[in-house]
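Comment thread on ticket #2218

A.B. wrote:
> Attaching the input chain for the structure job we discussed in standup.
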Amino acid sequence: MRRNLSILTLGLLLVALTGCKKQENFYDIPNVAISHYVYLSNPTNFNLQVQGGWVYDDAIGAGYKGLIIYRRYMNFDANDFVAYERACPIHYASDCGQMKVKDDFSIVCECDDKEYALFDGSPYQDNPSPSVKFYRTTFDGGNTIHIVN
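C.D. wrote:
> Ran it. Output below, let me know if you need it in another format.
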């Protein structure tokens, strides 16, 4: 009886150890120091002058693989901006691991075509991935967005 219990315990331990696989997530995306300014008067950023507008920002110091900056309209605040990391939450280290805006509602990881809501970075229901990493933004009410982490 004791031998059977030992064999059973050993078997369960082996199954548990071989079944564990570390899943990468956005907490694994390398942390880079960000203090980045975006100016609405810059012609490349004109899309940010209206709600629902977005731009890519791949400048040096703008995230790990760049940023997606989106002007949303949350809680009746016309000056609400969000800055998402362009690195995919799971495939951030891959060559294909960069997010692209698919349409006015979603962004997609190029590696696995997993989609996320453009409004808040959350994964769609059929996507078990973690949310897209985002950075804190402040807007001066006129021309300048400051993005920091």
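A.B. wrote:
> Thanks. Noting for the ticket: The first helix runs from residue 2 to 19.
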